Amino acid sequence: MTTLASTLSSVLTKASHHPVVGQLDDADCGPAALLTVIRAFGGKATLPDIRSQCLRDPRGASLADLVSCANHMGFSARAASGSLDQLQACTLPCIAHVVNERGRPHYVVVQSIGRTVRIGDPALGPRKLSREHFEEMWKSRAVLLFEDRAPVPPLTLHVPQIQWTLNLLMESKALLAQATFLIMLGTAGSILSSLVAAQLVTRSVPAGQSSSIYALAGALLGIGMARALIGFARHLFVSRASERLVRRLHTVLLEALLNVPERLFHSGLLGNHGARLVDVQIAQIQLLRSLSTIGSDILLLTVTCVVIAFISAALLPFLLIAVGILAIGLRRHFRRLRESSLRVASAYSDLEERFREVLSGSRDLRFANACSFGMNMYEQRVSTFAALQYRVASSLGSLTLSSELIGAMVLSGIVGYAAMHVLGGQLRRDELFMLYIVGGLAVPSIVRVLDSVNSLQTALVAATRIEELQTSSDRSSRSLSSTPVSIALETASLRRAAQMPVWENVNFVVRRGELVTLEGPSGCGKSSLVAVIAGHLRLTTGNIHVEGSDGQRLADDELEHVVALIPATTIIFSRTVLENIALGRPIPALTIQALAVEAGLWSLLERLPNGLHTVVGHGGHPLSAGEQQAIGVLRVLVAKPPFIAIDEGLNALDEPRAAQVLSAVVGSSWRPGVILISHSAKLRALAHTHYSLRVRENRNGHDAVTS
């Protein structure tokens, strides 16, 4: 490492403070500290992405790992050593390697140094230590500094705003007219019921006119029934408008996702990918919910204020003061609710991503099942999510209670102020009663508007997380150091979290232009073996080598760029077949058609109503399992990867068609190596090499697997 003094001239100018990112376990402090500093210097990244690059050892990340990750994400970082005085002369924040209270190596973010040292501890949060205390912890004198290089400019996601929605409604003038008419009817019904009730209480009852009482009571009942029918019609309208909005909104958000298709389907981000698809749904639902409520309730509040001002102009100043008091009273509660909602929304996405990782193994499982702390991490996230959810419910309850109390106070003040005008002869009793009823209608609308704004905020949080996926480091775009020609496993073993072997002492080789098949009983670890070859899992012991055409071996982290995986289940988007295959890549339809013909899959796609231009997915033309797998196969083939792993990705195709696909792929111009998991004897007969995983009884009485 260079001396700390040699880095002083190249350290970044002062960066803005950023909240400390919390660690998930003891091994996670390095990635969490690095993410804190990256965000402080204006970079954008996600913790799963940094973990996937830093944690090469289950015990934690080294300084070299953190330097490599920071450099790969667009920064120029270096490790250094020195004294606290030298560190104080540097521009902060930086990462320091310390020993925590338990005597274990740990990373913290040094944010400022003066009479005290302010640090961000991924385990404990912000801390303020004495200089002596920090120096006692900082025994290694090692730090990670960031030099002056601008981070990679983030991609921009244009989230649909209110203007976009208004433009959409303007395109649907019939729906807009219907919505306006229904809102006006509902508002008129509310005001009319107030007038009728006022006539009933203040005129007919004191006069003892029974016929008028019956008539007005019947009119009041009729108005109530009409308001109920109007509400039902409004609900139908919202459902119909929502269907149209969903399609447009789904297209906009999904286009944002597909702007970076290689990164979207990159093996290191599949867990994020699954969570972000849920985010698309969250954004749709919450935007529709908020937009369908805000308009009508704001109009109702506006009309209420106009009616109150019309009844008594003297009440208008008091009304404005009351609305201000209500807004100030609810501001603190609403801010707390918004912050809690942001936390719980992020925690939900994080929990959903971890759940997918733990069950499906789509991410690198050295952070989950393959390590003893994996399930503890998941359980910790569940507890965090549950606590945050309770906090949101508590905040929402406080908001509702406060809004009702403050609304009641404001309403009482309006009525009391108006009663003084009744005594002075400036206002009639029926007008006073109507003021009370109209004001009472406004309080629930205020609560609904605030709740709708919260829904809109949740939708924007989901859209922000979609942007995080786009701004993650683009590891998939870098070029390989050499053209890969073979992949080999040597005495490889993989163990689960409880140290139970998945398989042991496996030797396996696949070369370009070869078809290698893999068979074995259920649960013997075939999919895990493919996941290792595809770079999704790391071996417990043994080696994996990727040989290049120049005789050089490729680095381990290049493996995920070498092997493309065709899973048994294909995700289908609500787009055309062509867009589902191209995934944002500028690939002409004729190119995909020629590839489908060569692979023997065109007969499955040409029978669709509009061929490659048929809209499929939710609300589109239904696809059979074979048609879905044909799309999944073509997605991979258009990328022409050096190696293809098929984890029962052809099991929905009939054997002759699957055999044609395999022959076409292996014999194609770029001659990929193919690893196939299949129980079909006919397909195994096509293989150049065949491997079988078998279960044996080991000395401890547990099942182990060998090749």
TrEMBL record:
<keyword id="KW-0812">Transmembrane</keyword>
<dbReference type="InterPro" id="IPR017871">
    <property type="entry name" value="ABC_transporter-like_CS"/>
</dbReference>
<dbReference type="Pfam" id="PF00005">
    <property type="entry name" value="ABC_tran"/>
</dbReference>
<dbReference type="Pfam" id="PF03412">
    <property type="entry name" value="Peptidase_C39"/>
</dbReference>
<feature type="domain" description="ABC transmembrane type-1">
    <location>
        <begin position="179"/>
        <end position="458"/>
    </location>
</feature>
<dbReference type="GO" id="GO:0005886">
    <property type="term" value="C:plasma membrane"/>
</dbReference>
<dbReference type="InterPro" id="IPR039421">
    <property type="entry name" value="Type_1_exporter"/>
</dbReference>
<dbReference type="InterPro" id="IPR011527">
    <property type="entry name" value="ABC1_TM_dom"/>
</dbReference>
<dbReference type="Pfam" id="PF00664">
    <property type="entry name" value="ABC_membrane"/>
</dbReference>
<dbReference type="GO" id="GO:0005524">
    <property type="term" value="F:ATP binding"/>
</dbReference>
<dbReference type="InterPro" id="IPR027417">
    <property type="entry name" value="P-loop_NTPase"/>
</dbReference>
<dbReference type="GO" id="GO:0006508">
    <property type="term" value="P:proteolysis"/>
</dbReference>
<keyword id="KW-1133">Transmembrane helix</keyword>
<keyword id="KW-0472">Membrane</keyword>
<feature type="transmembrane region" description="Helical">
    <location>
        <begin position="179"/>
        <end position="201"/>
    </location>
</feature>
<feature type="domain" description="ABC transporter">
    <location>
        <begin position="487"/>
        <end position="705"/>
    </location>
</feature>
<dbReference type="InterPro" id="IPR003439">
    <property type="entry name" value="ABC_transporter-like_ATP-bd"/>
</dbReference>
<feature type="domain" description="Peptidase C39">
    <location>
        <begin position="23"/>
        <end position="145"/>
    </location>
</feature>
<keyword id="KW-0067">ATP-binding</keyword>
<dbReference type="InterPro" id="IPR036640">
    <property type="entry name" value="ABC1_TM_sf"/>
</dbReference>
<feature type="transmembrane region" description="Helical">
    <location>
        <begin position="213"/>
        <end position="237"/>
    </location>
</feature>
<dbReference type="GO" id="GO:0008233">
    <property type="term" value="F:peptidase activity"/>
</dbReference>
<dbReference type="InterPro" id="IPR003593">
    <property type="entry name" value="AAA+_ATPase"/>
</dbReference>
<keyword id="KW-0547">Nucleotide-binding</keyword>
<dbReference type="InterPro" id="IPR005074">
    <property type="entry name" value="Peptidase_C39"/>
</dbReference>
<dbReference type="GO" id="GO:0015421">
    <property type="term" value="F:ABC-type oligopeptide transporter activity"/>
</dbReference>
<keyword id="KW-0378">Hydrolase</keyword>
<protein>
    <submittedName>
        <fullName>Uncharacterized protein</fullName>
    </submittedName>
</protein>
<dbReference type="GO" id="GO:0016887">
    <property type="term" value="F:ATP hydrolysis activity"/>
</dbReference>
<feature type="transmembrane region" description="Helical">
    <location>
        <begin position="298"/>
        <end position="328"/>
    </location>
</feature>
